[in-house]
Automatic annotation (TrEMBL):
Described purpose of this protein according to its UniProt entry: Mitochondrial membrane ATP synthase (F(1)F(0) ATP synthase or Complex V) produces ATP from ADP in the presence of a proton gradient across the membrane which is generated by electron transport complexes of the respiratory chain. F-type ATPases consist of two structural domains, F(1) - containing the extramembraneous catalytic core, and F(0) - containing the membrane proton channel, linked together by a central stalk and a peripheral stalk. During catalysis, ATP synthesis in the catalytic domain of F(1) is coupled via a rotary mechanism of the central stalk subunits to proton translocation.
Keyword GTP-binding appears in the UniProt entry: no
One GO MF term: proton-transporting ATP synthase activity, rotational mechanism
Protein name: ATP synthase subunit alpha, mitochondrial
Domain (ATPase F1/V1/A1 complex alpha/beta subunit N-terminal): residue spans on this chain: 29-94
Native species: Populus alba
Cross-referenced PANTHER family: ATP SYNTHASE SUBUNIT ALPHA, MITOCHONDRIAL
SUPFAM superfamilies: C-terminal domain of alpha and beta subunits of F1 ATP synthase, N-terminal domain of alpha and beta subunits of F1 ATP synthase, P-loop containing nucleoside triphosphate hydrolases
Gene3D superfamilies hit by this protein: 2.40.30.20, ATP synthase alpha/beta chain, C-terminal domain (1.20.150.20), P-loop containing nucleotide triphosphate hydrolases (3.40.50.300)
Subcellular localization: Mitochondrion inner membrane
GO cellular component: mitochondrial inner membrane; proton-transporting ATP synthase complex
Keywords: ATP synthesis, ATP-binding, CF(1), Hydrogen ion transport, Ion transport, Membrane, Mitochondrion, Mitochondrion inner membrane, Nucleotide-binding, Transport
Residues passing through the membrane, by range: none
Length: 672
């Protein structure tokens, strides 16, 4: 009985084993290490391995197959090769190098393989993407047309960058290349905070290649204090990491950025810097015994960068309309932009921001060489308001540089040349900006508009920064909100005349108040005083210049300045009459043509009555009967103008600049 029970148990066990028996065999192709040294392992036996495939050594260290030769395979080791010895087994993984990607990566610091190094534990929900993928094709792309604001006046005005563009930052060491990149990341904080959808946000990926660990830690602290880590990913391959990791880091960061691009979102990736990646690739290639070329770089070093930067693109609407913007950084030696790697990357990218050591040491920061810096496609994405405001800025700076070079050889300059030098010096001063203080685009437009239109010409150079702060701090939030809604939306690209008029109002009102600070009548202003030994004299001169340079139309807009600024213009009653008369008599020639053509002959009479009514309202502000009379005259005047509005294209041009609200403000009447 005992024997039969054991036999039945054995039969049952064999039956269960045979039921679950599978003929599928798991085969691992393995090889053996022939030689190892300097991070390169020669392996024999991996006959079916793919180029770029990951392998695993017996010690657990991973590597990637780069050289596929007849006798052996050249493998670069991701880590220390001290634990690898001759004869060790090497196993194929069957997968190309991939890294984690997704929103779970935001706020984390990872190495080139996507392994967290910030001490905050493992990654949560994420997907994995290959580090080497093909760039989007021509049909999948769309032209760059959306702006990517950096928060730097010099960049957004002179070398604008669009979403999907590749803009190179090039310069010697210690010229502020990384500072531009960090300011761009910090500027996205307020842009993302007021975004209403994912398609308006901009996520950032910063790839640190060959930098010191202390530098990366300092960067993490800066971004953390500014709450910018919440939309950023940091990929770090520091100077102490092996060359293969420094080579791989840009591709890993690009794969993480492509997650946002391919899912209809927008991302910015910064490669800091690609010079060190090229050096790491040269080291690997020479150790793999690849033939060297110019400057000992391998022959495919151009392809190294081109296949990386071509992955930055603006996708078409059919493929999600996402984008990946690239800001590669290249370090030059003694300003030599004609070296091998700089010329390669310049030819690949869509423009470059050139930084100069001389400008940096002169205190011009960011130290951008306006003559050499260019954006080849970014102007199509530049806000129309900014383009209209800074249209002549680059030309004026170029003329200033040319004249300044000759002015140092002579002391007697004609007034036109002296004016050009004064304007150029102030424009250069306006474009200066401290580090880690990006400006919103609406404030950039306001400041640049003031500089380009001569409102800074009579300000002392050492007061330009104070003047800029006063303008940006004195302006009411209501106007800034108007500028944000009209200018900062990603889908509004048309600048209307009322926007420029609003800027004129803001700047002109400020000048009127500051210029009257030392006037005959004492006026209480809440603006900071401009401290100077000759304040009174310079203010009077400045006021006269503002009177001459501002057009009558600009001055007529002063009357409504109180709605934009915390400080009302406080004009005298006589100023109202004079400005209104000048507006009707001189500022609009088309009005005179309207008056000469029937049935508009009575407009002039109504205008005169209108002015007299205004004067009466100023003299007797409390007379209710007089105010009703003024309102009746105004309504009659507006009705007659409205009746002829559709009949005259000339009138429509006039009416665009002089609306019902303008007339009511001039009369001092409440708005409807």
């Amino acid at each position: 009985m005992e024997f039969s029970s054991r036999a039945s148990e054995l039969a049952t066990l064999l039956e269960s084993k045979m039921t679950h028996f599978s003929t599928n065999l798991k085969l691992d192709e393995i090889g053996r290490v022939v030689s190892v040294g300097d991070g390169i392992a020669r392996v024999y036996g991996l006959n079916e391995i793919q180029a770029g495939e990951m392998v695993e050594f017996a010690s657990g260290v991973k590597g990637i197959a780069l050289n596929l030769e007849n006798e052996n395979v050249g493998i670069v080791v991701f880590g220390s090769d001290t634990a690898i010895k001759e004869g060790d087994l090497v196993k194929r993984t069957g997968s190309i190098v991939n890294v984690p990607a997704g929103k779970a990566m935001l706020g984390r610091v990872v190495d080139a393989l996507g392994v967290p190094i910030d001490g905050r534990g493992a990654l949560s929900d994420h997907e994995r993407r290959r580090v080497e993928v093909k760039a989007p094709g021509i049909i999948e792309r769309k032209s760059v047309h959306e702006p990517m604001q950096t928060g730097l006046k010099a960049v957004d005005s002179l070398v604008p960058i669009g979403r999907g563009q590749r803009e190179l930052i090039i310069g010697d060491r210690q010229t502020g290349k990384t500072a531009i990149a960090i300011d761009t990341i910090l500027n996205q904080k307020q842009m993302n905070s007021r975004a209403t959808s994912e398609s308006e946000k901009l996520y950032c990926v910063y790839v640190a290649i060959g930098q010191k660990r202390s530098t990366v830690a300092q960067l993490v602290q800066i971004l953390s204090e500014a709450n910018a880590l919440e939309y950023s990913i940091l990929v770090a391959a520091t100077a102490s990491d092996p060359a293969p990791l420094q080579f791989l880091a840009p591709y890993s960061g690009c794969a993480m950025g492509e997650y946002f691009r391919d899912n209809g979102m927008h991302a910015l990736i910064i490669y800091d810097d690609l010079s060190k990646q090229a050096v790491a690739y040269r080291q690997m290639s020479l150790l793999l015994r690849r033939p060297p070329g110019r400057e000992a770089y391998p022959g495919d070093v151009f392809y190294l960068h081109s296949r990386l930067l071509e992955r930055a693109a603006k996708r078409s609407d059919q493929t999600g309309a996402g984008s990946l913007t690239a800001l590669p950084v290249i370090e030059t030696q003694a300003g030599d932009v004609s070296a091998y790697i700089p010329t390669n990357v310049i030819s690949i990218t869509d423009g470059q921001i050139c930084l100069e050591t001389e400008l940096f040491y002169r205190g011009i920061r960011p130290a951008i060489n306006v003559g050499l810096s260019v954006s080849r496609v970014g102007s199509a994405a530049q806000l129309k308001a900014m383009k209209k405001v800074c249209g002549s800025l680059k030309l004026e700076l170029a003329q200033y540089r040319e004249v300044a070079a000759f002015a140092q050889f002579g002391s007697d300059l004609d007034p036109a040349t002296q004016a050009l030098l004064n304007r150029g010096a102030r424009l250069t001063e306006v474009l200066k900006q401290p580090q880690y203080t990006p400006l919103p685009i609406e404030k950039e437009i306001l400041v640049i508009y003031a500089a380009v239109n001569g409102f800074c010409d009579r300000m002392p150079l050492d007061r330009i920064s104070q003047y800029e702060r006063i303008i940006t701090n004195s302006i009411k939030p209501e106007l800034l909100e108007e500028l944000k809604s009209g200018l900062c939306s990603l889908f509004r690209f048309f600048i209307l005349d009322w926007i420029v008029a609003g800027l004129t109002t803001a700047v002109s009102t400020f000048i009127w108040n500051v210029s009257s600070e030392s006037g005959e009548e004492s006026r209480q202003l809440s603006l900071p005083a401009l401290e100077s030994e000759s304040t009174s004299e310079s203010i009077h001169t400045f006021r006269a210049g503002a009177e001459n340079e501002a057009t009558i139309y600009h001055r007529i807009r002063l009357l409504e300045g109180q709605q934009y600024f915390n400080v009302p213009p406080q004009l005298h009653p006589g100023d109202y009459e004079r400005l209104v008369r000048e507006h009707f008599d001189q500022a609009e020639p088309n009005i005179a043509r309207i008056m000469e053509v029937s049935p508009y002959e009575n407009i002039r009479q109504e205008a005169d009555a209108f002015i007299q009514a205004k004067v009466a309202s100023v003299d007797n502000p409390g007379d209710a009967v007089q105010r009703k009379h003024i309102e009746r005259k105004l309504n009659s005047f507006l009705q007659e103008l409205t009746q002829h509005q559709r009949q005259s294209s000339i009138y429509r041009k006039f009416y665009k600049h002089f609306t019902n609200e303008d007339l009511r403000r001039l009369c001092g009447l409440p708005l409807p």
